[in-house]
Amino acid sequence: MSYSVGRVSWEQAAPLLKNVREKVFVCEWRIPKKIEFDAKDRHAFHLLVCDDVSQEPIATGRILATGEISRIAVLMAHRKNHVDHIVMQGLLSIAKDLNLDEVFIYSPLEAVEYYRRFNFCSAGAVFMEAGMPRQRMGCRLENVEDADYCKTH
Q: Where are the transmembrane segments (predicted)?
């Protein structure tokens, strides 16, 4: 499988980004649309992954200038192909371009171990967001395991 990965703005690609996020977060996870799409979208740096064969958008994620990584969504049919690693690598690349020292994510509890593989560490207490337990996880950008992990797993 081959993919095209691009950095896009909300204004430029909102319909494509919304399509992926609605399928994953609203339809699969049952998160209300009014919670899924927020004011942060307009200020975030977005990543869009498209399947090179179908040209369809299959994954997305965003990062804020504060270092907050969020809204990583991969369509179900492409999850076995490790597209999540492509998204994560792209977001970390944006973080480096922004000269950020640290990145963080509010991880669903079932994904905490996944982010630990990138050297993210838990910080603070578990909290509820949109009816889901979450854990803040952070990592200094110099400590993030990104490119090597993404290429070999």
A: none
